[in-house]
Automatic annotation (TrEMBL):
It comes from the Bacteria. SUPFAM superfamilies: GroES-like, NAD(P)-binding Rossmann-fold domains. This is NAD(P)H quinone oxidoreductase. One of its GO terms (molecular function) is NADPH binding. Keywords: NADP, Oxidoreductase. SMART domains: PKS_ER. Residues 18-331 form the Enoyl reductase (ER) domain. Pfam families: ADH_N, ADH_zinc_N_2. InterPro entries: ADH-like_N, ER, GroES-like_sf, NAD(P)-bd_dom_sf, Quinone_OxRdtase_PIG3.
Amino acid sequence: MSANLPARMIAIGFAQPGGPEVLQPVELAVPQPGPGEVLIRVSHAGVNRPDVVQREGKYPPPPGASPIPGLEVSGTVVRLGEGVDGWFPGQKVCALVSGGGYAQYCLARADHCLPVPPGLPMDQAAALPESLFTVWHNVFERGWASDGETILVHGGTSGIGTMAILLGRLFGLTVIVTCGSPEKCARALELGAAHAIDYRATDFVEEVARLTGGEGVNLVLDMVAGDYVARNLRCLAMDGRHVTIAVQGGARAEINMAVVMTRRYTLTGSTLRPRSDTFKALLAQEIADQVWPLVADGALRPVMDAAFPLDRAADAHRRMEAGDHVGKIVLEVARG
């Protein structure tokens, strides 16, 4: 290692799947960037639902990915791998990674990084990649959302939900969300949702019909699956699109395919982590072109919930599992 970089680092890992308490500090060798990679001294790491599912043993990292949790980071480039250009040591970046974010140093594909513009705090930079890549791809690429359409988003105050509200507002969508309390509904409306439905107090299918004059929504962004799918389809307008990005309510769904045919529905879904490096690079480039100018001028900022020191990753997971958060949870690894 060069004189200004240590040989060892602290990361947060787990020996066996389990509850938040299995997350423990471990000492590891600082990784070395391979061709096309950069090494980032991590400032902050985002905490996401897939991290929790991985910790539970239900979402193993893809082949070749770090077993350390963490799918997004912000920090400073400290070393370049072979063939990397466009980045330089000392540059502040945020990155989508396939693992390894809960650590003092993290490898990232150079073409999965985005520059941190002046005025964007590093904690907010770390909170952008996972939700931004996910929402952009699934709402605008897979879901074909366009100006003037209406979208229903479940989990409206989650990291994904808040990003969907923000992007929807910026790109001309009418966003209807579901939330689990009046307080969360009020917060979603503050963020720019056109309507917020308390799903514990109201049948969201009936409420969507009322809000849309019986027409339905053009798109559903679904994180629940299970028995929500059939209910979601009842919310869709003719030619509606249904995009599933998580299966928190169960992986199996029973639907009436005759309804799908007669109303010309499109059902799709995706998971981001296993996608190829090339796909993620192309997605990063599209986001750099279409969305990053809004970040640079301050029009798009993630909704932040809480920051925890790296050694309190277990507490960050407990907060996420409690379901009380609004927006993004991050780990503070180092300042700067």
